Amino acid sequence: MASASRQESEETFNSRMSTAGLKFGGRFKPSDCKARNKVAIVVPYRDRKFHLKIFLRYIHPFLQRQQLEYAIVVVEQSDNLPFNRGLLMNIGFKEAQKQDRFQCFIFHDVDLLPENDGNTYACPEVGKPRQMAFSIDIYDYKPTPIDHFGGVSAFSTFDFRRVNGFSNVFFGWGSEDDDLYRRLLHHNLTVTRMHNLNTSTIVRYRMFDHQVAEPNPDRMRLFDQGTRRLEFDGLVDLRYRRLSVKFKPLYTHIIVDVQPQIHKTQSYQTKNE
């Protein structure tokens, strides 16, 4: 699926994207029509250079064929703390809003590629966040459980603020997406999926091979305590240090130090013990 992009040189691909209208920072607006949606794609990142290269070369033509106005924001965690996916999503949401008024956000793991152009990356309705990556090749495209909300998900900007974003406390693999799903239920939002007989092959994803992440040993305890943190753990309590913002040909690259958040996490744990 991505072999042609891999064979094309970086310079040639960047030139082709520039000719198509892609601006520095990974920003695109159709020239022949007025886009109905202005979408920010937020990608949490650390040490996946090869995956990021393939993802960017694949996703730009995919999004442009859907005639979206969009920007791709890659948020990289620089410190030696365990990876915190939810925290990086929150940071990407906040930093993207400094650049423009996006109607919606798609939170996208770097190792997932949509297989069919019919899989819309347009904005979901307010009140109806969309779970997108529920049919993946490594699981033989069998639907993931109904409460699965990981991989790729779409929110209106209003709804993501409403649920207070992701929890910031999940350092290491696991449970931040389960916690987010519970936040949606708490606010009576309706999770949607494009899943019926007519769309079952449209919403498929391919996942890159990658090393299995080490699970967070505290993830279930933190998840069990999540209802106590709904109002004060998330966008309203975001702590990080922005180290740099670079507008590259294919994406906006934000590097952050999340050390300030670890102190808040420790205070949550102490308070709830």
Automatic annotation (TrEMBL):
Alphabetical list of CDD domains matching this protein: b4GalT
Keywords: Glycoprotein, Glycosyltransferase, Membrane, Signal-anchor, Transferase, Transmembrane, Transmembrane helix
Sequence ranges assigned to domain Galactosyltransferase N-terminal in this UniProt record: 16-124
Gene Ontology BP annotations: carbohydrate metabolic process; glycosphingolipid biosynthetic process
Gene3D superfamilies recorded: Spore Coat Polysaccharide Biosynthesis Protein SpsA, Chain A
Subcellular location: Membrane
GO molecular function list: N-acetyl-beta-glucosaminyl-derivative 4-beta-N-acetylgalactosaminyltransferase activity
Membrane topology listed for this record: Single-pass type II membrane protein
Domain called Galactosyltransferase C-terminal: residue spans: 132-211
Pfam family membership, one: Glyco_transf_7C
SUPFAM superfamilies: Nucleotide-diphospho-sugar transferases
Family statement drawn from the similarity comment of this UniProt entry: Belongs to the glycosyltransferase 7 family.
PANTHER family referenced in this protein's UniProt entry, alphabetically: BETA-1,4-GALACTOSYLTRANSFERASE, BETA-1,4-N-ACETYLGALACTOSAMINYLTRANSFERASE
Protein name: Beta-1,4-N-acetylgalactosaminyltransferase bre-4
Taxonomic source organism: Daphnia pulex
Phylogenetic placement of the source organism: Eukaryota, Metazoa, Ecdysozoa, Arthropoda, Crustacea
